[in-house]
Design brief:
Layout (H helix, E strand, L loop, with lengths): L1 H9 L1 H12 L14
Helix pairs in contact: 1-2
Length: 37
């Protein structure tokens, strides 16, 4: 959980974007532009 928490604090948009992308495909691809890798 610590690792996930750190990732969320450093890349909140990345994790949130992934969740939003999996839930709804209507969102624009700009979410994937976040440097997650």
């Amino acid at each position: 959980m610590t690792f996930l928490t750190e990732l969320h604090m450093h890349f909140p948009l990345a994790i949130g974007g992934l969740v939003l992308t999996e839930q709804s495909d209507q969102d624009p691809p700009r979410i994937l532009n976040v440097p997650f890798w």
